[in-house]
Design brief:
The protein is elongated. The protein is built from 13 helices and 11 strands. It has 302 residues and is an alpha/beta fold. It is 47% helix and 17% strand.
């Protein structure tokens, strides 16, 4: 059986995923020539071609696809083992965290100072993305997600329920004070027509016009509402600071529990459950979520 040169496997995985030698070289911080040589060494050692060359692209052939299926879990396991070993030895004091941009901007960032005061020796490396990343493959210790578990291979720890609530800028909210739901439905609406239809139906009202705007990020939606583009359905947790500061006003006591994404979770590889920096982060998140929940509860409902 051919000996597998393990040092070539990171290059193989990068080229297989990116389908481009130059792009893989950039990701690995190697030269184009170095990556090409590593792929050639791997192919020579195995005695088979792994890629089909198509212009500037390189595409896995059946042999390459078979090797990829075999090595991906092994590489992921090795990476996770290194992180677990570092954690057990206490040598890693940076927690890599994957979050949604809206969560990072509207909730996490305003509280980073309190995290630093509480844990000055632990660095948070925050990666904000709309994409659900593979934590183990991309080297993250934890992620903040909304939705419902399970997530394959990860522990999921519930943080908080965050229903959708209706909010507006202060001037618009003052004009609408005491107005019924159908009057709210006649205002310029921001958000999903489906969610507005569901929220209004809770109070016996109907959607009367198509929303003027929708965003794939609650941070952008909150900014548009603060600038008085209209009234919006937003996550209660993400609106909490703006509500407290008076930049937004809640319009109605109705809440819509979106079963697909109304709950926030902290997810992480089970082998890191007892790693002190991650345990500290989870404890801090629970404490801060409690403060946010209590602050929202103190606000006077319309």
């Amino acid at each position: 059986m051919a000996k597998l040169p393990l040092n070539t496997l990171p290059a193989f995985r990068a080229v297989a995923r990116l389908q481009n030698l130059r792009a893989a070289a950039g990701e690995l911080h190697l030269t184009h020539s170095a990556v090409s040589q590593q792929i050639k060494l791997l192919e020579d050692q195995l005695g088979v071609q792994l890629f089909d060359r198509r212009g500037r692209s390189v595409v896995l052939n059946p042999a390459g696809a078979a090797l990829q299926r075999a090595v991906e879990p092994a590489l992921d396991g090795l990476a996770e083992g290194v992180r677990a070993a570092q954690a057990a030895a206490g040598t890693a004091q940076t927690v890599r965290l994957s979050v949604l941009p809206s969560f990072a901007q509207r909730w996490l960032l305003p509280r980073i100072g309190r995290w630093r005061d509480r844990h000055p020796d632990i660095t948070l490396d925050v990666h904000a993305s709309q994409q659900v990343v593979d934590l183990q493959r991309e080297g993250f210790h934890a992620g903040l997600r909304s939705g419902h578990p399970p997530w394959r291979g990860l522990e999921a720890e519930k943080l908080i329920d965050s229903p959708l609530i209706a909010v507006a800028a202060p001037a618009r909210a003052a004009r609408l004070a005491g107005a019924g739901l159908q009057a709210l439905a006649a205002e310029p609406l921001i958000g999903s027509a489906e969610e507005w239809t569901q929220w209004l139906a809770l109070g016996g009202a109907r959607l009367s016009s198509k929303p003027v705007a929708d965003f794939n990020d609650f941070g952008l939606m909150l900014m548009a509402t603060e600038q008085d583009l209209g009234i919006a359905l937003v996550r209660e947790l993400l609106a909490a600071d703006s509500l407290q500061a008076g930049h937004l006003v809640r319009l109605h006591a109705l809440t819509l529990d979106d079963t697909d994404s109304s709950t926030y979770w902290c997810v992480y590889p089970p082998e890191l459950a007892d790693w002190p920096p991650l345990a500290a982060l989870r404890e801090w998140l629970h404490d801060e979520m409690t403060l946010s929940r209590e602050a929202v509860a103190r606000l006077q409902l319309p």
